[in-house]
């Protein structure tokens, strides 16, 4: 196992593109650490610098305290698993697993021992004599994992390993990878654009945007205490709802509701007028199914656009009227929420017993005890 530390790591390509900017964090020994963000945010470039595939423009990468910026990839004792599997089609599963050990000139007895062990861990024992062409996507991915395991590396580096699998296989492999990492206890850095993977796999997660680390924390911390608008909107499915809000005389005025502010929050917002209000879908409730008024909040009425019934969950999509001029309070990155100049689209996750129906009016209880308030200019969480 290894401890991996990045300090001020930056990657600037020859054309001037800044792919990663001042990334600093430590991955502890045995930790499952996730890099998550949208396509093009620099997460794979960051992983490649850890592996040594990409040069570091600025900053330091250390393994167990030793700077490895100029250490050749093969000498870093890290095993990388790619999205494309990177297994040899002309070789059997056994030979694919054995190949990196043969390159390392290990004794045949040791190679056989490691191959058999990896095959047992990954349930590949019955597939050792088959070629990759006859394997399913999930089986091929297990072979790719096996090639990493047999090397007994100090760290695993996984770059979008489940992206080529269908939805059902992704869930299955996600569980297998989590169990495997826990059993092996090997330091693991895992790259994904899928926030569901990030939230279910990682002990800690780093959220990246445009090459910069926005926040690092446990999945629970990222969900409940997002540092800024980007993290709040990226983490969670469905994503957080955002509304323009105004602070008036100690009250929070929303497009369709008005709420009293608790004294600590009122003091913190003193002198501020505009805010962005974030509401998770689960903090809207069908007002007919809850005891309205048992918590801080307000009833809002909306016309239902779409109902999605998923068995255990019911998603209600609706629009809210927004007074003329108020939409300007939403930053550009949130403009997708607006359908036209004076309406905003939202989603509620309500009890599946709700009778919500499309094109009908629905009374929703907004639970104000879970609101998030953000600065419209900086996007930073104001602590609401």
Main beta sheet = 6 strands, mixed
Strand arrangement, major sheet: 6-7-8-3-9-10
Overall strand count? 21
Listing every helix as H and every strand as E from the N terminus to the C terminus, the arrangement reads EEEHEEEHHHEHEHEEHHEEEHEEEEEEEE
Q: At the fourth CATH level, what is the homologous superfamily of the largest domain?
A: P-loop containing nucleotide triphosphate hydrolases
Number of helices: 9
Q: Cα-atom Rg, whole angstroms?
A: 25 Å
* Mean pLDDT rating: 88
**Strand residue percentage:** 25-35%
Q: What is the CATH level 1 assignment of the largest domain?
A: Alpha Beta
Distance between the termini: 40 Å
Describe the structure.
- With 384 residues, the protein is α+β, with helices and mostly antiparallel strands.
- The protein has two domains: 4-234, Rossmann fold, CATH 3.40.50.300; 278-372, OB fold (Dihydrolipoamide Acetyltransferase, E2P).
- Helices cover 23% and strands 33% of the residues.
- It is built from nine helices and 21 strands.
- It has helices at residues 43-51, 93-103, 108-121, 137-149, 167-184, 195-201, 219-224, 229-234, 263-268; strands at 4-12, 18-27, 32-36, 58-63, 66-67, 78-81, 155-159, 187-192, 204-209, 212-217, 241-248, 251-254, 257-260, 274-279, 284-286, 297-309, 314-321, 338-340, 343-350, 361-367, 372-374.
- A hairpin with a 2-residue loop joins strand 4 (58-63) and strand 5 (66-67).
- The two termini are 40 Å apart.
- Mean pLDDT is 88; it is low at 335-339.
């Amino acid at each position: 196992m290894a401890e991996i530390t990045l300090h001020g790591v930056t990657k600037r390509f020859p054309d001037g593109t800044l792919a990663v900017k001042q990334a600093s964090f430590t991955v502890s020994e045995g930790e499952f650490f996730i890099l998550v963000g949208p396509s093009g945010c620099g997460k794979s470039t960051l992983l490649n610098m850890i592996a040594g595939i990409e040069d570091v423009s600025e900053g330091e990468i250390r393994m167990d305290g030793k700077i490895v910026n100029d250490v050749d990839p093969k000498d870093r004792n890290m095993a990388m698993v790619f999205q494309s599997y990177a297994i040899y089609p002309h070789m059997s599963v056994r030979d694919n697993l054995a190949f990196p050990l043969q390159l390392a000139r290990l004794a045949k007895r040791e190679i056989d021992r490691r191959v058999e062990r990896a095959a047992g861990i990954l349930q590949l024992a019955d597939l050792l004599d088959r070629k990759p062409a006859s394997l399913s996507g999930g089986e091929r991915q297990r072979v790719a994992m096996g090639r990493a395991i047999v090397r007994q590396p100090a760290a695993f580096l996984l770059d979008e390993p489940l992206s080529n699998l269908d939805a059902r296989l992704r869930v299955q492999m996600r569980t297998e990878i989590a169990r495997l990492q826990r059993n092996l206890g090997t330091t693991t850095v895992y790259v994904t654009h899928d926030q569901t993977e990030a939230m279910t796999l990682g002990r800690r997660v780093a959220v990246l945007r445009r090459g910069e680390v926005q926040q690092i924390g446990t999945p629970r911390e990222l969900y409940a205490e997002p540092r800024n608008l980007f993290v709040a909107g990226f983490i969670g499915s469905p994503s957080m709802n955002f509304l323009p809000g105004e602070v008036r005389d100690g009250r929070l005025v929303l497009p369709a509701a008005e709420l009293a502010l608790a004294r600590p929050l009122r003091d913190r917002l003193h002198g501020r007028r505009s805010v962005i209000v974030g509401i998770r879908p689960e903090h809207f409730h069908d007002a007919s199914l809850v005891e309205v008024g048992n918590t801080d909040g307000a009833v809002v009425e909306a016309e239902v656009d779409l109902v999605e019934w998923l068995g255990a969950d019911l998603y209600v999509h609706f629009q809210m009227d927004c007074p003329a001029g108020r939409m300007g309070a939403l930053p550009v990155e949130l403009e997708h929420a607006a359908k036209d100049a004076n309406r905003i689209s939202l989603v509620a996750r309500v009890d599946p017993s709700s009778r919500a129906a499309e094109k009908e009016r629905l009374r929703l209880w907004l639970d104000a005890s879970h609101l998030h308030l953000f600065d419209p200019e900086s996007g930073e969480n104001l602590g609401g």
